[in-house]
Amino acid sequence: QVRLMESGGGSVQAGGSLRLSCAASASGYTYSNYCMGWFRQAPGKERERVASFSRDGMTAYSDSVKGRFTISKDTPDNTLYLQMNSLKPEDSGMYYCAALFATSPWHCLIGAKVRDFSYWGQGTQVLVSS
Question: Of all residues in the chain, what percent carry a pLDDT higher than 70?
């Protein structure tokens, strides 16, 4: 069982920055075996993927955050990060990290659906005011 715990959310004005963290823990857990993703969900909307990190270190972003958000991970500490800059009110929502075991880079970065991710954190709230 993989446990994920997000932190770093909060309230910020438009144009500001936040860095989200996702700490992973499990017996025998190795970050390199998992495709990792950051997702967000605004009230009344579907959960959407905003950034992904494949097992071989490739990254992908949704068009809405490309150029503003950066996903990274610290393998020794089993921590995934999402650096969010130039935040906009439409970036507000609950942010989740999730893990998908042993999938191809294409599936991780492009093909995987929300339902394909097996492990989820409890989320951290981001509120961007105008």
Answer: 98
